Write a sequence for this structure.
């Protein structure tokens, strides 16, 4: 009797850097998911924390205005925009979108950890939602919406680029 070897499916090896990216994303997504749930169920606390942060920022702005009085009118407008956008309703809506995008990025990272390309697509969708949602909730002309949107575009865009480089290892 001849012993025929049956071909075995050899699992592709996951690059260490991809593993590192996935674990960083999983950690960040889980942390942000809990923060988003907190903001969704208790938007008053989120509004209060944002107000405190703005008051601290306002002290810094006052020092800048003392050096350059022409900044006063533009800074007053910016601060008024942020204070007007900082409502319980806006924070609840923003937290809902954050829950959604963090779930998508978490699931995407878990799938990419298993070398599935669909994980990249879910991750990308989560990043797009995180980029667009602040503009929808706070408005395109509001500094708070613009700041959140730029932050998510830069940080999310960097991770999308790093994941895209490793797409060739995914099936």
């Amino acid at each position: 009797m001849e012993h025929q070897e049956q071909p075995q499916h050899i699992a592709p090896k996951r690059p260490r850097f991809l593993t590192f990216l996935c674990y960083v994303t999983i950690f960040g997504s889980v942390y942000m998911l809990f923060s988003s749930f907190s903001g969704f169920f208790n938007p008053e606390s989120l509004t209060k924390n944002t107000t405190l942060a703005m008051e601290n920022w306002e002290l810094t702005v006052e020092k800048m205005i003392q050096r350059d009085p022409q900044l006063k009118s533009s800074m007053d407008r910016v601060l008024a925009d942020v204070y007007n956008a900082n409502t319980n309703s806006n924070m609840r809506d923003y937290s809902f979108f954050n829950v959604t995008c963090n779930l998508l990025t978490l699931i995407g990272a878990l799938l990419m950890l298993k070398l599935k390309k669909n994980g990249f697509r879910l991750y990308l969708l989560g990043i797009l939602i995180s980029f667009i949602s602040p503009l929808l909730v706070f408005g395109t002309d509001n500094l708070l919406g613009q700041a959140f949107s730029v932050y998510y575009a830069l940080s999310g865009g960097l991770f999308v680029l790093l994941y895209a480089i490793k797409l060739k290892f995914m099936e």
Remarks:
- The longest helix spans residues 16-41.
- The chain has one domain: 16-169.
- Helices lie at 16-41, 43-67, 71-85, 88-113, 117-138, 143-165.
